[in-house]
Each structure stands twice: as structure tokens, then as C-alpha cells.
Amino acid sequence: MSVTIQKVIDLTGAIPFDNVYDAKTVIENFCSENIAIVNTNKATNITHGTHLHDSYEFDICQTDIPSTMIDSKIFNRRSNTLFAVNPMQEHGLASDLKGFSICGLHIDKSFIQNASMELYHSSGIIFSNDSFSITNDIKMLIRLFWEELKYKQSGYEFMVENLSLLIVGNLMRLVKHNLSHKAYNLPKCNIENIKTVIDYMNENYTSGVSCSELAELIKMDKFGFIRSFKAETGRTPYEYLLDLKIEKAKKMLKSNEYTVTEISMMCGFSSHSHFTSTFKKKTGVSPTVYKINPY
Question: Is the pLDDT of residue 114 over 70?
């Protein structure tokens, strides 16, 4: 468990698990400033009844979950679907449930509303309570979010901030809401602005930079910046920075001037094992193998 249960409850409100005090065996949780992710396991028991909180909640059903309730309406949720709960909506279960698997994303209300204002020019976003099929993109973003908070390598704050924005943006695309009919109307940044950002990332990739910092550099809002950056480069700032680190590492490995451990630190990876696994995912070989036989 990456953070104390109290930090999660500060964002999610009281969690109605009857054995939550043994939280390390009941749930796995990861929490940033704006998002708490609570993942249940077979030891989790949740009691019937309803509760409410002031955050937005998005629940991913990893098994069939019968008799969920929102505002006294009962839903039977299917595995591999997602549904949303709005702030201060009463929700819960019609009967006790034991040993179920669900991933709950609790997102700070102001974070969602600020994103809604930037995307739809209105903060009054209300999501449908219907079920929607979960996408591989959202699954991948949540997994990356977990990894960044788990390993906390150099610059992880930048990664978490980007991933938080990407998670919220993808949820807004997937889950129907009252503002869905309004078209996106965001300013675009030109090639010179993108070059400015890339130069800045090249100079600061080891120390960690935030998405807000990059957006402010070219006087754009964060969501507009991320979408424009991807439109110009084909990658998000998160993906670009990770690729940048790997390319820097490859050059250092070819030079034979440093050890793999030294390179992992110099490229902003605080963990040798995390650097090795990331490098292998990107190149197909470990840093040690690449050092012996670069291509």
C-alpha cells in the first residue's frame, strides 16, 4: 500500500468496507494530490447501504457486481465496465458483498471541474450513471499511474500530473455527460512553441519538470498544451520525456564511459531495476545486453 488509508479517505470519504482497518490485506491504494485509486481484492467485504462524498468517483468492475445503487436506483454492473458517481450522489449496494474485485478512481471535484472548464468552457459537468465498456487506453493509463507512484523515480511528479490529466480527459470522452455535445475549442500551439518545449525538456529531463511548467512556458492551458503537443509530435509529453530518457541512456551505454547504475541515475531513473525494465520494454533488450552489443 503506497499511502496511509487516512490520505485516501480524505479524498474518497468514509469507505464502507467492514474490514478496512486491516487495509493492507483488504485493498491496494495509490494516491496523488488529485486522484486516489482503490483496488479491492478477495479479502474485501463491503456492507449494504449508501454513502456520499464530495469527489467524482469512477468504478471499474473487474467482476460482475449486482445490486449497485445510485440515488435509490439499482444497477447490475457487468465485468469490464465502468460507471461514474457525481459529487454528493448517494450510492452503495443493496446487499452485502464479499470477495469482489473493483477498481475505484476518486478524483478531486475541483480538478474535474477545472478540466471541464478548459475543455467545454463550463465547470458544471454531470456524468451519466450508466455503464460503459472500459477501454485499453484507460487501463494502460491507470497502470502507468500506479507504477509512477510506486517507484517514485526522478521526475515522477511530472509523470503523475500528465497521467492525471490524461486519465480525466479519457474518462470525459468515454463516459456520457451533460456537456458532451459541446465541441472542443482549444488554441493550438505552433511548431516554434513545440520546439521551445522540447529544448526545455532536453535541458531539464533529469531534474523533473511539470506539465504546468511546460504549458506556462508557451502560455497555454494544460489540456490544450497536451493535445497540441501530441498533434505535433504524435506523443504525449509523458511519452516524449520517457523516450528522451531512453535515447540519452542509449548514447551513454554506447560510449562505455559509465556503468548501467550510473546511467540510470544520470537519466533520471532512481531505481536500477525500474530503468532496466523500462529500457527493455522500449528496446527489447536489457541495458547490459545493449551495452555489449549496441545497435
Answer: yes
